[in-house]
C-alpha cells in the first residue's frame, strides 16, 4: 500500500470567510498520480501530524483526491498537488521553513507549483483539529452517553469525561462546559478557542454528521456529534479495523435525523411493551411468592428481540435459534416465541403431575421450538430456544453448534437463512470464560455461524454484586472487542433508541455476517428473584429504583403527548392483553400432566414414531461386506487426486496401510476409516472436531493430506469414497474444550442422522469442558427429553507420561451412569442389550481391539435411538502389532462385542482355570504378555469388558459360570480409587449374587492419576502384574 509520509508540520485553523475564498480558487485541473518516490523514504518526523491514526486519515483522503480532487478540502488538494509535483518531505506546507538553503529552494519550488494563499497552514491545522475532535467523539463519545436509566452509575464504571471531547451533556453544567473548553483551548489540545465555535469547518469524509452539508460551524459540529454519540446510545466501534464497516456504522448513527419511526411503528412498540410489562404483572398477581426471574426494569427486551427477528426475517432469515439465561425467560417464551400461555401458567401449579419422560427441569430452563408466521414480514419463521442449565453462558456454544448444523443441513453456507441470538446477563457476560471461547469460534471456517446477535440484559447488578466488584473492564461487553464486534450500548428507558440499535444490529449481521452486541443498560426492579430483598446490599440503588417510573408508563405518556395514541386506546391495549392472560389462566387449570416433550427445542421429525418411541428395539449387524472394506481401505491408503505431492513419511504410512488392507486387517486408524467411510456411504454426515484431529494428536489419522509443494492445497480422501456420499467434515478446533465440546453437542442436537465426534487432545483435558458433560451430556435427556448421539473420544492409558496425559478419568463418567449397581436386571428379557442401552443416560466403552471400535462407532448410528457415547481411546495401541483386527471380524453378521471372552487354552478346560481376570482396554495386552511369559495360559483366563456401561450383566454372568473354580479378580492399570474398580466391583458382585469375592489387582489409591517418574511407573506396573498372576496373592485376605 502507498503510504503518505510527507506533509507540512504545522497546521492552523482558518476562518469561514477564508475557507470560502480558498474554495473558489486554485481548483486543480485534474487528478494526478502521486509519485511513489514520495512515500517510504520520507522520515515520519518530518510530518509530525502523520503519525499514528492521522496518517490513515490522510491516506484515505489521498485516495479520495485521486478519484476526485474536489472531494477533499482545498488545503489538502493543494498539499497533494504540491507533494505530487515533487515538494520534498516535510516542506509541502511548512512555514516558516528551517533556513537551510536546500529547504528554502525546496519550498520555493513547491510554492511555485501552486499559488498557496498565506494562511493555508492554519487552515490545515484547523481542519486536523476538528477532524481529531470528530474522531474523539467517534472513539470515546460512548463514555459520556447517558446510558443508565437510573442516572446513578456510569455504564463504563467511570464518571470522568475523556479529556479530548467537549461534552455539554448532562454530566457537565454550562460553567463546567466553558471551563472545559477553556482548558482544551489554553491547554492546546486542539488549539481551538471559544471564538472558533462559530467558524465553519470542512467535514472530513469519515463523518456523516453534515448530512447534505459538507461544512459546518464548530458549534454545530459539536452539537451533532453529541446527538450522535452522547445521548441514549453509546456506540463502540472504532476498534474495528475495517474502513467500510466503520463507515457503515458512522452513517447509521451520525446521519442527522436518521432515527425516525412512523406512528405505526411507535404503536407496535407500545403494544409490545404492554405485553412484556403486563405479562410480568400478571405472574406477580397470580403467583406472588414464586420465583420467575422477572424482566421488570428491562421490559424493553421483548420489543428489542422482536425487532431483531423482524428485521432479520425481512432480510431472509427463516430460522432463529436462541439461547438465554433465567432473566425474563418466561416472558420471551410467551411473547417472542409465542408458547401457549396456558402451558406456561400451568407450570406454576404445584399439583401438576410429571409425565413418565424423565426427571424434568424447572420452568425457566426449558427449551422450545415453534414455527409460525412473522406478522410484520408475513414470512414463515421458526424460533427455537435452547434448553439450558443454571450454569450461566454454558448454552452459548451449544446454540452456536446447533445453528451451524441447521445451516449445514439446509445448505445455508453464508448464514442467510439461519441465525442465532444469544442473550446474556451483564455479570455473566463479563465473568464467564466460555463467552470468550465462544467468540473465538465465531470466525473459524468450520465453526462460524456467520454472525450472532448478542443482547445483554445489563441490569447493573449480578445477584447481589455491584459491577464495580464484578469486572475489571469498563463495560461488561468488552470481551466482544476481541472479534471486532461493534457494541451498541443503549439506555433501556428509551424504547425508540433500543429499537433503533436492534434494527442496526440485525442489519449489521445480515450485511457483514459478523457478531454484534446490543447492551441494554437497564435496572432490576426486584431482587435477584422475586423473593430476594435487594435493599440489604444495594440500598441507594433501590431507593432510586423505587422512584423510577416503569418504561411502559413513560413511553405511553410520550406517545399520548405526541398524539400518536390516546389514553383510551392505550388502556384498551392493556385490558386486551390482560384478558388474554386471564383466559389462558382459566384454561391452564385443565392441564393435569406436564409433558416435557412439549418443551423440546430440537424435534427430529421422522426419526421416532408419532408418539415419540423408537421405530424398533433392535440393532442390525454392524459388519460390512468385503468389497466395502476393501474399497475404503484402498482409498484410505492412497492419494485420490492427481499431481498431489505428500510428505515422504506419510507415503510410508499409507504404504503400511495398504499392506494391512492387502492382509485383510485393520489397525485403529483404519478401523475408524472403515466406520466413517461406510456411514458416509449410507448418507450419514460425519463431523470430527477437536484439537489437531485432522492429523491426529498421535499422528495416526491423517485425514487431511497436505500438498508439499502448493500452499494450502489439501485433500480429504474420505470425501472421495463414493459418488453420492454424505460429506465428511474434519476440523482442527481452537484450543478450547468447553466451547468446542458445547458446540459439537449443539451440532449433534440438530439431527439424529449424523455422527458427531469430539476428540480431546488427551482424555484428561475433558475436565475443562466438565460443565458440558455434567450439565448437558450426562443428564440432557432426563432433564429435557432430548436425545443426543455425540461421541467423545478420550485418549487414555497409563504409559509413563506423568500425572497429566494419562487418565481420561473413567471413574467420573462411570460414577454418573444411571444403572443400579445392586439390582440384577431381568437377563431373560428380549433384546436385553438394546433395552439396557435405551434406558441408560450414556454409553461408556473402552475397546481393546480396532474391530470393536469400528463396530461401536457404526452401532452408534444403527441404533434406533441416540445416546451419548464415551470412548476411552488408546495411545500406544494405535501402533501395537497385536492390536489388529481381521476383516473376518468385521463382515456382515458381526457385531460390537460388549464382552470379549477368553478364547485361548484356558477356555478349552475352564474347570482347570484358577483365576478369572476381568479387565478393560490396554492392560489386556500387558496381562497376556505376562501370562505367556509365566506360562499360565491354562490357569488364568482373561475376559475383556468392552462396554463398561450399561454393564453387561448377562455376558459376565456367563463368563463367571464357565469358570466355576476360578478366583475372580478385577485388574486395572489405574489407581484403585480411580479407573473402573468402584463401578465394576459392586455390579460384578450383584451378577454373582455376591457368592464369591471379587479381588483387586492394580495400583494403590493415589491423589494424582499417575506418577511423574518413569521408573516408578514401570515398578508399579510390574507389581500389579505380579498380583494378577500370583495365585496366592489373595489367599490370606478374606
Ligand atoms: C456459572 C454460574 N455461576 C453462578 C451462578 C449463580 N447465579 C445465578 S444468577 C447469578 C447472577 C447473574 O447476574 P447477571 O449475569 O448480571 O444476570 P442477572 O441475574 O442480573 O439478570 C449468579 C451468580 C450461575 N447460575 N451460574
UniProtKB/TrEMBL annotation:
Transmembrane segments: none annotated. InterPro entries: 2-oxogl_dehyd_N (IPR032106), 2oxoglutarate_DH_E1 (IPR011603), DH_E1 (IPR001017), KGD_C_sf (IPR042179), ODO-1/KGD_C (IPR031717), THDP-binding (IPR029061), Transketolase-like_Pyr-bd (IPR005475). One of its GO terms (molecular function) is metal ion binding. One of its GO terms (biological process) is tricarboxylic acid cycle. It is found in: Mitochondrion; Nucleus. Its EC number is 1.2.4.2. It catalyses: N(6)-[(R)-lipoyl]-L-lysyl-[protein] + 2-oxoglutarate + H(+) = N(6)-[(R)-S(8)-succinyldihydrolipoyl]-L-lysyl-[protein] + CO2. Belongs to the alpha-ketoglutarate dehydrogenase family. This is 2-oxoglutarate dehydrogenase complex component E1. It comes from Chrysochloris asiatica. The gene is OGDH.
Amino acid at each position: 500500500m502507498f503510504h503518505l509520509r510527507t506533509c507540512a508540520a504545522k497546521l492552523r485553523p482558518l476562518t469561514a470567510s477564508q475557507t470560502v475564498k480558498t474554495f473558489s480558487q486554485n481548483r486543480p485541473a485534474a487528478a494526478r498520480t502521486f509519485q511513489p518516490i514520495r512515500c517510504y523514504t520520507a522520515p515520519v518526523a518530518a510530518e509530525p501530524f502523520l503519525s499514528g491514526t492521522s496518517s490513515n486519515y490522510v491516506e484515505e483522503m489521498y485516495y479520495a483526491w485521486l478519484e476526485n480532487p474536489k472531494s477533499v478540502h482545498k488545503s489538502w488538494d493543494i498539499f497533494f498537488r504540491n507533494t505530487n509535483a515533487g515538494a520534498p518531505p516535510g516542506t509541502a506546507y511548512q512555514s516558516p521553513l528551517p533556513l537551510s538553503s536546500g529547504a528554502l529552494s525546496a519550498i520555493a519550488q513547491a510554492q511555485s507549483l501552486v499559488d498557496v494563499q498565506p494562511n493555508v497552514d492554519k487552515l490545515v491545522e484547523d481542519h486536523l483539529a476538528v477532524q481529531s475532535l470528530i474522531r474523539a467523539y467517534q472513539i470515546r463519545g460512548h463514555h459520556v452517553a447517558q446510558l443508565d436509566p437510573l442516572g446513578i452509575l456510569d455504564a463504563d464504571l467511570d464518571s470522568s469525561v475523556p479529556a479530548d471531547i467537549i461534552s455539554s451533556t448532562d454530566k457537565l453544567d454550562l460553567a463546567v462546559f466553558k471551563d472545559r473548553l477553556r482548558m482544551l483551548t489554553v491547554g492546546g489540545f486542539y488549539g481551538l478557542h471559544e471564538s472558533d465555535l462559530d467558524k465553519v469547518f470542512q467535514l472530513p469524509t469519515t463523518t456523516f454528521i453534515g448530512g447534505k452539508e459538507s461544512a459546518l460551524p464548530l458549534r454545530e459540529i459539536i452539537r451533532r456529534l453529541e446527538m450522535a454519540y452522547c445521548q441514549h446510545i453509546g456506540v463502540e466501534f472504532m476498534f474495528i479495523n475495517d474502513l467500510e464497516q466503520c463507515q457503515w456504522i458512522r452513517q447509521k448513527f451520525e446521519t442527522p435525523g436518521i432515527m425516525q419511526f412512523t406512528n405505526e411503528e411507535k404503536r407496535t412498540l407500545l403494544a409490545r411493551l404492554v405485553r412484556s410489562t403486563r405479562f410480568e404483572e400478571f405472574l406477580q398477581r397470580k403467583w406472588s411468592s414464586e420465583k420467575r426471574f422477572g424482566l421488570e426494569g428491562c421490559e424493553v427486551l421483548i420489543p428489542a428481540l422482536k425487532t431483531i427477528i423482524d428485521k432479520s426475517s425481512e432480510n431472509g432469515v427463516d430460522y432463529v435459534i436462541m439461547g438465554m439465561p433465567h432473566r425474563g425467560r418466561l416472558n420471551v417464551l410467551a411473547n417472542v416465541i409465542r408458547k401457549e400461555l396456558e402451558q406456561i401458567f400451568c407450570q406454576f401449579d404445584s399439583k401438576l403431575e410429571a409425565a413418565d419422560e424423565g426427571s424434568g427441569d424447572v420452568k425457566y430452563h426449558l427449551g422450545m421450538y415453534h414455527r409460525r408466521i412473522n406478522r410484520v414480514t408475513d414470512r414463515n419463521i421458526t424460533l427455537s430456544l435452547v434448553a439450558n442449565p443454571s450454569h450461566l453462558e454454558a448454552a452459548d456454544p451449544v446454540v452456536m453448534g446447533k445453528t451451524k448444523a441447521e445451516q449445514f443441513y439446509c445448505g445455508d453456507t453464508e448464514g442467510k437463512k439461519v441465525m442465532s441470538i444469544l442473550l446474556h446477563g451483564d455479570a455473566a457476560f463479563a465473568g464467564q470464560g466460555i463467552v470468550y471461547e465462544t467468540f473465538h469460534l465465531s470466525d473459524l471456517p468450520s465453526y462460524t455461524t456467520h454472525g450472532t446477535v448478542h443482547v445483554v440484559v445489563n441490569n447493573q447488578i449480578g445477584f447481589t454484586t455491584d459491577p464495580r466488584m464484578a469486572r475489571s473492564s469498563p463495560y461488561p461487553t468488552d470481551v466482544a472487542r476481541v472479534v471486532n464486534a461493534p457494541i451498541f450500548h443503549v439506555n433501556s428507558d428509551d424504547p425508540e433508541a433500543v429499537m433503533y440499535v436492534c434494527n442496526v444490529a440485525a442489519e449489521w449481521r445480515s450485511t457483514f455476517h459478523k457478531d454484534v452486541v446490543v447492551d441494554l443498560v437497564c435496572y432490576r426492579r426486584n431482587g435477584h428473584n422475586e423473593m430476594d430483598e435487594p435493599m440489604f446490599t444495594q440500598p441507594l440503588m433501590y431507593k432510586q429504583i423505587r422512584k423510577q417510573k416503569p418504561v411502559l408508563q413513560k413511553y405511553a405518556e410520550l406517545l399520548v403527548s405526541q398524539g400518536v395514541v390516546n389514553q383510551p386506546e392505550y388502556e384498551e391495549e392493556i385490558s386486551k392483553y390482560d384478558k388474554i392472560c386471564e383466559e389462558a389462566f382459566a384454561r391452564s387449570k385443565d392441564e393435569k400432566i406436564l409433558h416435557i416433550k412439549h418443551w423440546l427445542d430440537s424435534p427430529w421429525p421422522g426419526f421416532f414414531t408419532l408418539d415419540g418411541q423408537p421405530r424398533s428395539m433392535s440393532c442390525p449387524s454392524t459388519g460390512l461386506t468385503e468389497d466395502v472394506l476393501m474399497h475404503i481401505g484402498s482409498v484410505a491408503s492412497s492419494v485420490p487426486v492427481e499431481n498431489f505431492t505428500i510428505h515422504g513419511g506419510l507415503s510410508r504410512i499409507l504404504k503400511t496401510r495398504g499392506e494391512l488392507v492387502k492382509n485383510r486387517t485393520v489397525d485403529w486408524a483404519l478401523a475408524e476409516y472403515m466406520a466413517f467411510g461406510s456411514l458416509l456411504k449410507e448418507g450419514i454426515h460425519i463431523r470430527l472436531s477437536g484439537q489437531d484431529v485432522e492429523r491426529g494428536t498421535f499422528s495416526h489419522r491423517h485425514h487431511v493430506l497436505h500438498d508439499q509443494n502448493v500452499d494450502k492445497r489439501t485433500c480429504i480422501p474420505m470425501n472421495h469414497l463414493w459418488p453420492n456420499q454424505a460429506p465428511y467434515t474434519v476440523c482442527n478446533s481452537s484450543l478450547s474444550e468447553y466451547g468446542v465440546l458445547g458446540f459439537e453437542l449443539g451440532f449433534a442436537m440438530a439431527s439424529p442422522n449424523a455422527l458427531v465426534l469430539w476428540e480431546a487432545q488427551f482424555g484428561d483435558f475433558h475436565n475443562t469442558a466438565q460443565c458440558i458433560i455434567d450439565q448437558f451430556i450426562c443428564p440432557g435427556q432426563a432433564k429435557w427429553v432430548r436425545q443426543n448421539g455425540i461421541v467423545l473420544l478420550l485418549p487414555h492409558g497409563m504409559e509413563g507420561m506423568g500425572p497429566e496425559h494419562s487418565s481420561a478419568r473413567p471413574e467420573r463418567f462411570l460414577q454418573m451412569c444411571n444403572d443400579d449397581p445392586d439390582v440384577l436386571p431381568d437377563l431373560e428379557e428380549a433384546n436385553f442389550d438394546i433395552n439396557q442401552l435405551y434406558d441408560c443416560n450414556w454409553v461408556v466403552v473402552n475397546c481393546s481391539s480396532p474391530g470393536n471400535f469400528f463396530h461401536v462407532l457404526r452401532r452408534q448410528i444403527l441404533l434406533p435411538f441416540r445416546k451419548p457415547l464415551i470412548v476411552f481411546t488408546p495411545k500406544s495401541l494405535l501402533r501395537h502389532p497385536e492390536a489388529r483386527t481381521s476383516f473376518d471380524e468385521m463382515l456382515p453378521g458381526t457385531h460390537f462385542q460388549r464382552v470379549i471372552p477368553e478364547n485361548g487354552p484356558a477356555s478349552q478346560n475352564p474347570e482347570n482355570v484358577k483365576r478369572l481376570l476381568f479387565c478393560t482396554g490396554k492392560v489386556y495386552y500387558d496381562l497376556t504378555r505376562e501370562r505367556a511369559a509365566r506360562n499360565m495360559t491354562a490357569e488364568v483366563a482373561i475376559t475383556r469388558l468392552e462396554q463398561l456401561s450399561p454393564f453387561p450383566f448377562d455376558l459376565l454372568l456367563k463368563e463367571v459360570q464357565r469358570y466355576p473354580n476360578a478366583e475372580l479378580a478385577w485388574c486395572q492399570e489405574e489407581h484403585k480409587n480411580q479407573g473402573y474398580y468402584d463401578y465394576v466391583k459392586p455390579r460384578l458382585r450383584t451378577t454373582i449374587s455376591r457368592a464369591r469375592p471379587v479381588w483387586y489387582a492394580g495400583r494403590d489409591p493415589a491423589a494424582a492419576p499417575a506418577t511423574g517418574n518413569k521408573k516408578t511407573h514401570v515398578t508399579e506396573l510390574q507389581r500389579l502384574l505380579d498380583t494378577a498372576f500370583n495365585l496366592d496373592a489373595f489367599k490370606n485376605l478374606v
